[in-house]
């Protein structure tokens, strides 16, 4: 049986100039990146900073750094 610690996730939404760019979920030891409108996760990363960089790298070329807000 999973405990509350195992099931819980934290969520950050990335906002760019055009609205929501994607999201990052923290589950266990991973940060999972999903781009807005995507059907699948982009990938799992070991730190939040690496996940933020991956999300930004998959935004439109020349996009400004997004604002990340925890939800």
Automatic annotation (TrEMBL):
GO terms for molecular function: methyltransferase activity. GO terms for biological process: methylation. Keywords: Methyltransferase, Transferase. This is Methyltransferase. It comes from Microbacterium plantarum.
């Amino acid at each position: 049986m999973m405990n509350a610690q195992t099931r819980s996730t934290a969520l950050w939404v990335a906002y760019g100039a055009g609205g929501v760019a994607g999201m990052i979920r923290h589950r266990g030891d991973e940060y999972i990146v999903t781009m807005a409108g995507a059907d699948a996760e982009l990938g799992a990363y070991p730190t939040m900073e690496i996940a933020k960089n991956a999300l930004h790298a998959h935004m439109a070329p020349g996009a400004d750094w997004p604002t990340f807000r925890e939800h």
